[in-house]
């Protein structure tokens, strides 16, 4: 054989050897956080480039690797690195942390009135000076909620800009977009324009104009508006159809702070909390706080599991989701006259016409290998078109309706053993309602006992919910996994069945391929409650422009509407201080203010060292005089006392209040707590002689040894006859850092059958539908 022939035969082996010995690991995006804003913005990018050059070995590789430089408000960059390169950079001088890029999830005709913030209480001239910055999926600029008729130019403080492919206005005064991965799916638009709907919904909830006759295909018709209709809006698009990149989130914070926003609204987050300086939202909101900007965060949609709240940094506002006094009910009537009530946002009108009714299990598509075990869930492709066409189908699972729609069915009645008592509604691409499992048995019995069963589904009615407000099941719960001495969530706000603006090119229902178009949609999530809190914060900021972020947060928390603990076994772990009360928050009487140095002291007690803190703060902060310990002296407007099993209840908290009410006023403390726990406030009477005067007090909590006990709570309330300043107190057993979700414990597994959603509607992206992906 010739030499060439030998080489030809050996070539595949040589190639395989090269592949096996290749050390070229794929570079992945990492965030390099370096703390405080450097001196001189012009040199920031070159300094970052120089660091990469040292590690990567060449200027061209460094240039290719660098994705974002953060330097307008704090210092850092995003770059594509191997694990080895990331490790080398993490050891370089000035680096606080190196964080692998991940994808975060996207976590109102009636809601603002429910909060007593009625139309006649908004519209003050100073409200148009407030700028709300939203990190989300963008915005639909032509939406009537953002019409700028009657608006003057942006406030003089504004330093933001608008992307070249997007037209801003005097309402939407800034719009940027970020996509560090450089990938776009079919529905993504590379501009600040919203193709998902989520960002338009949150923006209009927080600061949308008044729009008359708004509705979701005729449902919930009325006047839609944001909390502060005359506020300005700045949009930072960080979320796409596939998620929200950490590197982009941090860059958006960098820009929003430098642009001059007053409130930052962030309706997104991870599945569980991260260490503060490994979390871009905690990092960004820390620097926002340093610049006088309050960040409002969604608590997450991982409830009702305990210890599931995300975005728990003490310098940000963590918002749970609760119901309003309206729920959507879709009734059905069987051919025997029986009427059953289900939960659904159903706008399809069958005009009372009855259609043949079948069980999904009798309509299997055997050609593709389906069976009754699959078709009873009405999964896409599992259904026989020949059998389903023209019929209403009873399905034994809550799904998006696509299985029946694609099989040419008329509608669907669903019952799910995992959803016994739904407390929020979905919209579907066809007539649909979700009934209880018990009523599901009635429907199935009727089908099996009748020769020609029929049914009809009625358009949804809006019923008054006398039990509201109640924290919804999906809203993430405390305690705080990172710092259990800080009670989280802070507060709750409307987040269930909220009508607000929508992108006309986004799917209007739970089904990702729903081609209908609407300018308003009704959806649920802590993503919806967060902009309510953001709007409330903007409402307070308008009349108190010089208040600190902590002061605004304190005002919202101490004036909150107290929720009925009998309706919520999780107590403050579900609702924090209670439901926001924006009107009362403008005049709280007393505030618990917190300075940057207070937060530095808090971080020292949490174990952060001096060198790390100096990188973050850029000053001479030191932890040498601080001993690591409990966070009982952070001037927080709530009290959280975790106790290890077998320990006695014993703690002393220190707080300082600032008088922002009448100059001459006297506040008297009252304590509500179960009798087994002793609470002493000293002094119990605070007398002020001027506005801005501060007085300190202590709260001593004592009680017996406890083990494996859930939350017990009460409150300390200060009153002067005009103001009520309430701070909750929670006592409970907890081991710091304990896992929130025992389902993730690999030592305990249950055989499951997975059903996978194709693509994604907003409910799949924000995590609410997660528990529906696993069926027994």
TrEMBL record:
One of its GO terms (biological process) is proteolysis. One of its GO terms (cellular component) is extracellular region. Residues 1-24 form the signal peptide. The active site is at residues 136, 198, 527. It is found in: Secreted. Residues 187-207 are annotated as: Disordered. InterPro entries: Peptidase_S8/S53_dom, Peptidase_S8/S53_dom_sf, Peptidase_S8_Asp-AS, Peptidase_S8_Ser-AS, Peptidase_S8_subtilisin-rel, Peptidases_S8_3, S8pro/Inhibitor_I9, S8pro/Inhibitor_I9_sf. Residues 633-731 form the Subtilisin-like protease fibronectin type-III domain. Pfam families: fn3_6, Inhibitor_I9, Peptidase_S8. This is Subtilase family protein. It comes from Forsythia ovata.
């Amino acid at each position: 054989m010739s030499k060439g022939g030998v080489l030809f035969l050996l070539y595949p082996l040589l190639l395989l050897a090269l592949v096996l010995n290749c050390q070229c690991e794929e570079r992945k995006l990492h965030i390099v956080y370096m703390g405080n804003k450097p001196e001189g913005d012009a040199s920031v990018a070159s300094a970052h480039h120089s660091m990469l050059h040292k590690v990567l070995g060449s200027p061209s590789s460094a240039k290719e690797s660098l994705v974002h430089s953060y330097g307008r408000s704090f210092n850092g960059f995003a770059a594509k690195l191997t694990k080895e390169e990331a490790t080398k950079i993490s050891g370089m001088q000035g680096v606080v942390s190196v964080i692998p890029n991940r994808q975060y999830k996207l976590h109102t005709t009636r809601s603002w009135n429910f909060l007593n913030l009625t139309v006649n209480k908004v519209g003050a001239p100073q409200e148009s000076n407030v700028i709300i910055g939203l990190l989300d999926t963008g915005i639909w600029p032509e939406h009537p909620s953002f019409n700028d008729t009657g608006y003057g130019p942006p406030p003089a403080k504004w330093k933001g800009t608008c992307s070249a492919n997007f037209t801003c206005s005097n309402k939407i005064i800034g719009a940027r977009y970020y996509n560090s991965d450089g990938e776009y799916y079919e529905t993504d638009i590379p501009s600040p324009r919203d193709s998902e709907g989520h960002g338009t919904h949150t923006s209009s909830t927080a600061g949308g104009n008044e729009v008359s006759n708004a509705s979701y295909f005729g449902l919930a018709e009325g006047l839609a508006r944001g909390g502060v209709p005359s506020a300005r809006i700045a949009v930072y698009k960080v979320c796409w159809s596939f998620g929200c990149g950490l590197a982009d989130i941090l860059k958006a914070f960098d820009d929003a702070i430098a642009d001059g926003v007053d409130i930052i609204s962030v309706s997104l987050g991870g599945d569980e909390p991260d260490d503060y300086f490994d979390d871009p939202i905690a990092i960004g909101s820390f620097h926002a706080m340093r610049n006088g900007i309050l960040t409002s965060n969604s608590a997450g949609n991982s409830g009702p599991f305990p210890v599931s709240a995300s975005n728990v940094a003490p310098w940000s506002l963590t918002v749970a989701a609760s119901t309003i006094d309206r729920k959507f009910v879709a009734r059905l009537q069987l051919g025997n006259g029986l009427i059953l009530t289900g939960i659904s946002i159903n706008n399809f009108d069958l005009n009372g016409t009855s259609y043949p009714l079948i069980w999904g299990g009798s309509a299997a598509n055997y050609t593709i290998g389906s069976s009754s075990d699959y078709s009873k869930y009405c999964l896409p492709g599992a259904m026989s078109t020949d059998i389903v066409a023209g019929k209403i189908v009873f399905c034994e699972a809550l799904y998006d309706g696509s299985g029946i729609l694609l099989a040419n069915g008329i509608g669907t009645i669903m019952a799910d053993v995992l959803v016994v008592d739904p407390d929020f509604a979905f919209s579907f691409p066809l007539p649909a309602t979700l009934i209880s499992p018990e009523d599901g048995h009635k429907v199935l019995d009727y089908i099996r006992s009748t020769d020609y069963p029929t049914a009809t589904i009625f358009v949804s009615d809006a019923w008054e919910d006398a039990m509201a407000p109640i924290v919804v099941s999906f809203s993430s719960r405390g305690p705080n996994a990172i710092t259990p001495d800080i009670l989280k969530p802070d507060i709750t706000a409307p987040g269930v069945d909220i009508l607000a603006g929508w992108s006309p090119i986004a799917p209007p229902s739970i089904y990702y391929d729903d081609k209908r178009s609407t300018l308003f949609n009704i959806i649920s999530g802590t993503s919806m409650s967060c902009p309510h809190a953001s709007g409330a914060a903007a409402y307070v900021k308008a009349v108190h422009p010089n208040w600190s972020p902590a002061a605004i947060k304190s005002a919202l928390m101490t004036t909150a509407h107290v929720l009925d603990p009998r309706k919520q076994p999780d107590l403050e772990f579900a609702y924090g201080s209670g439901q926001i009360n924006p009107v009362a928050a403008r005049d709280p009487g007393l505030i618990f203010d917190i300075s940057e140095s207070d937060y530095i002291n808090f971080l020292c007690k949490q174990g952060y060292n001096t060198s790390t803190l100096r990188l973050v703060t850029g000053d001479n902060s030191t932890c040498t005089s601080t001993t690591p310990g409990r966070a009982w002296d952070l001037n927080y407007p709530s009290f959280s006392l975790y106790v290890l099993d077998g320990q006695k209840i014993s703690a002393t908290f220190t707080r300082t209040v600032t008088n922002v009410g009448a100059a001459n006023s006297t506040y008297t403390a009252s304590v509500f707590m179960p009798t087994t726990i002793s609470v002493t406030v000293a002094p119990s009477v605070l007398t002020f002689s001027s506005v801005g005067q501060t007085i300190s007090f202590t709260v001593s909590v004592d009680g017996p040894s406890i083990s494996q006990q859930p939350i017990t709570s009460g409150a300390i309330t200060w009153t002067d006859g005009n103001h009520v300043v309430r701070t909750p107190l929670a006592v409970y057993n907890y081991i710091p850092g304990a896992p929130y979700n025992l389902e993730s414990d690999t030592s305990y597994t249950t055989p499951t059958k997975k059903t996978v959603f194709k693509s994604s509607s907003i409910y799949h992206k924000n995590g609410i539908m997660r528990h529906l992906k696993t069926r027994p």
